[in-house]
Backbone:
């Protein structure tokens, strides 16, 4: 019953943002593996969409990590 | 800023299939008046809802259908289901330019989709919401007209933390606003995902009454927004401690509710708010259907009231209002960005929280 499995849709250009309420930090993860913390979602989008400017990919990008809607049944 | 321009060359939900029949239905979509009806063999058709002669609406009485044709109620110009004028009263010759613009139609998942744009849809098909017409699900649905720009409804649906404040007593509990969210944007597919998984939450009346669960619940909200029109909320509810879904996707310990919205801009300041709730439990229980229909409609009307108020405020402030985005707006900002691109707007940058 899942449509549009995000794990296969859309190729590589997946941006992911984690936020835990109670903390003020948003963690942005670019498809290139670069990560950065923000306190402002507008600045966050500017950075994400600015790829590759200022993006320093980490050694182990989280390409294999589960994506939210795909966890659905 | 909230996107106000329209994204053309896209599919939009014009109506539910059950609204389109052997009587004309008029809807205004992206500012275009559209006539919908069904031919005798059951095919839904869509064309301009203005007679080429003196622009009388073909959806309004005394305009009427005769077989597969629509007869204008003012002077009798008659059109076929392809929009071509086939008869003009008292004369033999029909002017060659006498034709109504006709719109591509796809009927799918209980919706009648129309293509609004200047080019052909080609291979582009509307996104799917299969639960609404699939065996194994029971669906209740409705449509509420909204006197607000469509961008306000997009903002509203992409941030469900408002449930806690605006919809307490129906679907809101404190956990909704307190639980971590993950936002994802699939750039090429143009889809926005927002996920909130509550491990141990109070069960709001909407789910307690319909599922019969008495204790606390695991509650998952997985949003999938396919701009511009289709919004899916995959809702999974299970008693705390129930096993998670199996690797093959089987999930018989949980209740699933698929909440679907179609966000169809009507005019710059009005929107059709189509809503549907499909469930995979209590399939034949009319009381559950009635309850979910009434509850969801009440929730939608709470949003409608709030957004109508907001529209008046924003309209009064003109172009120059300021707003402030915070973390809960991450998904909404992504949606705005994609919509602005689709609408061909360049400078849709919101104001930053940082000075
Ligand atoms: S306006 Fe339709 S026939 Fe005259
Ligand atoms: Fe709401
Ligand atoms: Zn990058």
Residues:
């Amino acid at each position: 019953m899942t449509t549009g499995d995000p794990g296969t849709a859309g190729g590589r250009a997946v941006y992911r943002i984690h936020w835990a309420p109670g903390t003020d930090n948003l963690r942005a993860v670019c498809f290139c593996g670069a990560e950065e913390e923000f306190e402002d979602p507008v600045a966050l989008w500017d950075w994400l969409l600015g790829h590759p400017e200022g993006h320093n990919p980490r050694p182990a990008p989280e390409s294999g990590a589960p994506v939210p809607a795909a966890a659905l049944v | 800023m909230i996107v106000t321009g329209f994204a053309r060359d896209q599919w939009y939900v014009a109506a539910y299939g059950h609204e389109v029949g052997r009587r004309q239905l008029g809807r205004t979509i992206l500012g275009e008046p559209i006539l919908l009806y069904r031919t005798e063999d059951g095919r839904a058709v869509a064309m301009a809802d203005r007679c080429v002669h003196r622009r009388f609406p073909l959806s309004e009485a005394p305009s009427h259908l005769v077989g597969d044709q629509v007869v204008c109620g003012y002077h009798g110009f008659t059109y076929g289901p392809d929009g071509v004028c086939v008869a003009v009263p008292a004369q033999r010759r029909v002017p060659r330019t006498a034709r109504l613009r006709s719109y591509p139609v796809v009927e799918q998942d209980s919706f009648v989709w129309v293509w609004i744009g200047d080019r052909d849809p080609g291979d582009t098909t509307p996104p799917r919401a299969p639960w609404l017409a699939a065996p194994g699900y029971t669906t209740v649905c409705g449509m509420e007209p909204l006197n607000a720009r469509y961008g306000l409804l997009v903002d509203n649906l992409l941030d469900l933390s408002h449930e806690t404040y605006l919809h307490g007593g129906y679907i809101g509990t404190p956990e909704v606003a307190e639980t971590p969210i993950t936002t994802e944007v699939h750039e090429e597919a143009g889809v926005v995902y927002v996920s909130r998984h509550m491990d141990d939450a109070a069960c709001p009346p909407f789910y307690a009454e319909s599922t019969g669960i008495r204790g606390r619940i695991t509650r998952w909200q997985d949003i999938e927004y396919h701009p511009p029109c289709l919004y899916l909320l995959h809702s999974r509810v299970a008693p705390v401690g129930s096993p998670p879904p199996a690797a093959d996707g089987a999930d018989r310990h949980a209740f699933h509710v698929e909440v679907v919205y179609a966000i169809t801009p009507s005019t710059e300041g009005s929107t059709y708010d189509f809503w549907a709730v499909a469930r995979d439990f209590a399939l034949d229980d009319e009381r559950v259907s009635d309850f979910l229909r009434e509850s969801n409609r009440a929730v939608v009307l709470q949003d409608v009231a709030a957004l109508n108020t907001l529209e008046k405020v924003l309209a009064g402030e003109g172009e120059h209002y300021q707003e402030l985005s915070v973390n809960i707006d991450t998904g909404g900002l992504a949606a705005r960005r994609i919509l602005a691109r689709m609408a061909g707007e360049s400078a849709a940058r919101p104001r930053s929280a940082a000075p």
About this structure: DSSP finds six helices and 18 strands in chain B. Residues 346-355 of chain B have pLDDT under 50 and may be disordered. The first helix of chain B runs from residue 150 to 158.
